[in-house]
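Incident log, support desk, overnight shift.

02:14 A customer reports that sequence design results differ from what the structure should imply. Their input is reproduced verbatim below. On-call engineer (initials T.W.) acknowledged and began investigating.
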């Protein structure tokens, strides 16, 4: 999660009127810990299934 923490610090330094969003791509999937962290922070997690369209498109 070090990379996400670094990006979070950059978000803090962004202009107040900017809309900062993060997306993390992984072909191997994500740990439960990272999935929970992503839910808390609004980070989009995109795995191989989502990238290839194998998952339900309504679920993020």
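02:41 Re-run completed on a clean worker. Output:
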């Amino acid at each position: 999660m070090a990379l996400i923490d670094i990006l979070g610090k950059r978000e803090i330094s962004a202009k107040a009127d900017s809309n900062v969003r993060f997306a993390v791509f992984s072909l191997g999937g994500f740990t439960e810990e990272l999935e929970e962290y992503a839910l808390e922070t609004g980070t989009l997690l995109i795995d191989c299934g989502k990238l290839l369209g194998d998952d339900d498109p309504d679920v993020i």
